[in-house]
Model the fold of this input.
Amino acid sequence: ILITGMLFYFGWTAPGFIFLGVTLFVCWFFRDPDREIPRGENEMASPADGRVIIVDRLSTCEYMPGPCQKVSIFMNVFNVHVNRVPFDGIIERVQYSPGKFINASFDKASVHNERNALVVRTHADKKFAVVQIAGLVARRIVNCVQAGEQIKKGERYGMIQFGSRLDLYLPLDFEVCVKIGDKTKAGTTVIGIMN
Done:
């Protein structure tokens, strides 16, 4: 905003309008609308706005023992980037992993990119993990919660700046309600049912 104002003040209108466009985009990017949280006790809300790119079963998982299900949501630069807690529980651990910044839509981003995972135990003694993954443009993961903290579905807990991805690692008996290509809204879209 300061640079934009200075450009107009000194009469450099062409670059001023370019910087004005960038300023308006950045202000719009950091929007944080209120959301209607699903009321169903066992319904898991989406942690991110975006598009579902993976729904799969895995034989192993680095965040939980044994096999699990994985749901990945890709966020582009036009999505709201505030991340929300998908389900009530207590954070068992926060696991940060440094890494690369390859395109977050590639499956290898789950392993190679910089990421921050929350491993959560629900009140029914189930475990799940939600993982923020940095991408090609997104270079800053913001996490505002810590281990031992009690979290509630729909609460804001962080963001990934300028596009990226969120992975959910879920128990095998979790009933997934989304499919590849579905659009999601953080805190609103029901990802599935925790049985």
Remarks:
- The two ends are 49 Å apart (CA to CA).
- The mean pLDDT is 91.
- The chain is about 15% helix and 35% strand.
